[in-house]
Amino acid sequence: MRKKIVAGNWKMNCLLEEGQKLTSEIVHMIKDEPTAGVTVVLNPPYVHLQAVGRLLAGVDQLFLGGQNCSDKASGAYTGEISAAMLASFGASYVIIGHSERREYFKETNELLTEKTKQALSNGLHPIFCCGEPLEIRESGSHEAYVKDQLTASLFGFTEEELKKIVIAYEPIWAIGTGKTASADQAQEMHAAIRNHLAGKYGETVAHEISILYGGSCKPDNAKEIFSKPDVDGGLIGGASLKSRDFVDIVKSF
Ligand code: PEP
Prior knowledge:
The protein has helices at about 15-30, 50-55, 85-90, 100-105, 110-120, 135-140, 140-155, 160, 185-200, 205, 220-225, 245-250, and strands at about 5-10, 40-45, 60-65, 95, 125-130, 165-170, 210-215, 235. The radius of gyration is 17 Å and the shape is globular. Helix 1 (about 15-30) runs parallel beside helix 2 (about 50-55). It contains 12 helices and 8 strands. It is an alpha/beta fold. It is about 45% helix and about 15% strand. Strands 1-2-3-4-5-6-7-8 form an 8-stranded parallel β-barrel, surrounded by 6 helices. It binds phosphoenolpyruvate (PEP). Phosphoenolpyruvate binds near residues 215 and 217.
C-alpha cells in the first residue's frame, strides 16, 4: 500500500506567532478527529522550522518539511540552506522543483536533480513537483511535457532512490488561481505519470510511489480528487494556511 499524504506548503506566509498558532490548531484537530492512515506534512518557511517542529513532536502522523534546499552540501553559498540543515531540524520531507522556484528562480531540470540528490543523501523524502503551464495544456502536449520533466530530473536515480521520492503533479494554471483541474484531468495525468515511471522502473516500483495533486485543492473538491485511483493525496498551498480547511482536506480520503 502506498502512502496517503497531504502536505501543506505555506510559501512565504505567516509570521512566527501566526505559524505557531496555525500549527497548534492543526495538531489539536489531527489528535481529536479521525484522520488515521494519512501522513500529514507541514512545510513552513525555514525560519519557523524549529518552532513548528517542536509543536509536531510526539504526533506520529505529523511530519516537518522544507520548501526547498540547496543543490550543494555546504560552503560559501550565502543565503542557502542545505538538506543536512533541514534534517538536523527534524525535517523528513522537502519540496523540490515547485513551479514558483522553476519560474521565479530559474531552477532547471539539471539543478533539481542535484537538489534531489542532496535531499536523498540526507535522509529526506523529496516531494518532487512537476506540471505544465496553461499554453502547454491548451496545445494538448501536457503529458509529454510532464514526462520530460520527470525523465530529465529523476530517471538517473536507482530504484531504491526513486522509491523514497513523492511526486506532486501541479498544473501551473491551477496553482493559486482557484481554477482546479477536474478529478478526471488529475487522474488522467497521474495515471500517465505512473505509467511513465513503470516504463523505466517497472510496475511494482511505480505502484509504490505516492503521486499528489496540487492546484487550488480545497475542502469542497478534495474528496472527489482523492477518490481517484492514482491520486494519493495533495500538496496544498492557500488552504494549508487555514487550519480548518487543511484538516478537512486531510479528512477527505
Ligand atoms: C502550491 O503552491 O503548491 C499549491 C498547490 O497552491 P494552491 O493550493 O494555493 O493552488
